[in-house]
Design a protein that fits this description.
Chain lengths: 168, 179
């Protein structure tokens, strides 16, 4: 994996991204704007399940309002994220935070879809305790994704000897 | 360039020294700052889209604003506290950083835009609260707000790439990345 990342890092595309100095902050800023859209959309779905926002409308209406925003913002995040990875492949693969983040994104997306199945059809403001608890857990997963994203830049400081870069 | 006394005092403060020496303070506080900014931007985006008549138009503006703006303010307070903490260990380079100064200016302008909207435009809210297309003044405020908050996030990220650091990485950290 490290060899692959090193090869990618010396490729023309990677060099072009690295030498375009304004590209990385630009992509990171877009990435953060999209975090705002995804996080708030997930928060709205979670709070609807708690019955503390949009309790006057059926759950499916809340889902229809926010799910497309999650989907398209995630597409933009994947696109900006992939370009950022091509620009600094070794930094990404040697960061434990990066792999934990990728794993939690999978959990976060599948968890959101699962939550929708559990809450779909509910028109009242009250939902079963299990669904509400799962919604809170999902919110924690998405918050963890944000923390891990920032931690990629500080992987050795945050994880010490657990950081993959130290052992390789 | 001469450093003003108050900037030097911030730089020399105990909290700044603690952050310069701590390994985990920066990533933890930066991530909390990102989470707070994401919440500020996301909630404002929802309110502005409602003002523009582009989303959430089935519900009155006042209901959307009431649900969102409490969260906006709570997150903004967290963003200000974490932001102030992030300035301290680098206060001298932040003070002369153009992106940082422009970010503060954009925050000021966003505040003025909000006050103008609340004092002038929101006074007639009862006339357009349920309208799917609020009046031009409201839509203008929403566009200004979205532009400024987008600029604030861009400038914030630009600071990190232009400011440099006032301190070296603490000496007990070993970086051994694969060659």
């Amino acid at each position: 994996m490290f060899e692959l990342a090193q090869q990618l890092g010396t490729s023309g595309l990677s060099q072009a991204i690295q030498s375009t100095l304004w590209l990385t902050p630009l992509l990171q800023a877009i990435h953060i704007l999209m975090i705002g859209i995804v996080f708030i959309s997930v928060l709205m779905v979670v709070l609807r399940i708690q019955g503390s926002v949009r309790a006057d409308e059926p759950f499916d209406q809340t889902w229809a309002r926010f799910a497309p925003w999650v989907k398209w913002a995630l597409v933009v995040m994947a696109a900006t994220g992939i370009v950022l990875c091509i620009g600094e492949p070794v930094r990404e693969v040697s960061a434990l935070s990066f792999w934990l983040k990728m794993g939690l994104i999978l959990v976060g997306v599948l968890g959101l879809l699962g939550l929708r199945r559990a809450a779909s059809g509910v028109t009242g403001s009250t939902m079963p305790g299990g669904v509400r608890l799962a919604a809170v857990a999902l919110l924690v997963v998405w918050i963890a994704i944000i923390y891990l994203g920032r931690a990629i830049a500080y992987d050795a400081e945050v994880w010490g000897s657990w950081s993959l870069g130290v052992y390789a | 360039m001469n450093t003003p006394a108050f900037v030097q005092a911030i730089y020399d403060s105990g909290i700044a020294m603690w952050m310069r020496g701590s390994l985990k303070a920066m990533p933890l506080i930066e991530a909390t700052h990102v989470l707070a900014i994401a919440t500020v931007f996301g909630t404002i985006f929802i309110v502005d889209l409602r003002l523009l008549g582009m989303a959430g138009t089935s519900r009155p503006y006042s209901v959307v604003a009431r649900e969102m703006l409490g969260k906006t303010w709570a997150a903004f307070i967290v963003a200000v506290i974490t932001g102030a903490l992030l300035v301290t260990p680098n206060a001298i380079t932040y003070y002369v950083n153009t992106a940082f100064r422009l970010k503060l200016l954009a925050l000021l302008l966003a505040g003025i835009n909000m006050v103008v909207f609340q004092v002038l435009t929101a006074r007639t809210m009862s006339q357009w609260d349920t309208s799917p297309r609020p009046p031009g003044a409201a839509r203008t405020a929403a566009i200004i707000s979205l532009l400024l908050w987008t600029a604030i996030i861009f400038l914030g990220r630009w600071i990190g790439f232009t400011k440099g650091y006032d301190f070296a990485v603490p000496e007990d950290v070993q970086f051994e990345f694969p060659q």
